[in-house]
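Q: My labmate handed me this sequence with no annotations at all. I'd like to see what the chain might look like in three dimensions before we decide whether it's worth expressing. Could you predict it?
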Amino acid sequence: MSYKYETHMHTAEGSRCASASGAEMVRAHKKNGYTGIFVTDHFFNGNTTVPRDLPWKERVELFCRGYENALAEGKKTGLKVFFGFEYCYQAMDFLVYNLDKGWLLANEDIDRWPPRAAFAKIHEDGGFIVHAHPFREWDYVDHIQLFPRDVDGVEVVNGAQLREPWMNERAAIYAKMYGLPETAGSDSHHLSALFGSGVETEEPIEKPLDYLKLMKEGKLKF
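A: Here is what I predict for the chain of 222 residues:
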């Protein structure tokens, strides 16, 4: 038996560039045979829906709505839903896992920290980091920046850039050069563009650290 997980997706509640709600994403992924999803909305230093002039607590509450709505729908449909977020630094995106709303509330202004300091804090508190689409060259990307000593894995297949396969190919070369674990995600934002990527496993993921373990062991299929 195999299990299918989406590791990188967005909701309209948290990501300004998304059009599908957390609940809609759950229903769509359940219909398409997924076992679980990681909600990874754009954080405050990225393309978030959350106004930047609100108090930190209010910002965090608003940010987590996409995940919480997805979680509620997941409980109804039987789809596993995990929390994550996409941390941005100068158009470079990093998927953060194994933290929660409580951690965000306790780390005010983490979005303004220097990236390596933020990554160190994430690791110190049990989180892990995947560099998403590291070689994306779209109009908003001024230049590519890599942090091979600060990430736990590399997204070598990003479903949103399958029409430009060289971006994923370069990500795979990067991962191999530094001996970094490899993973995949769709980066879906809309019901009209569910890219059908993600990972397949031979054992279920019950918590985010299970995902990290399988990634490090090279047991993810994509």
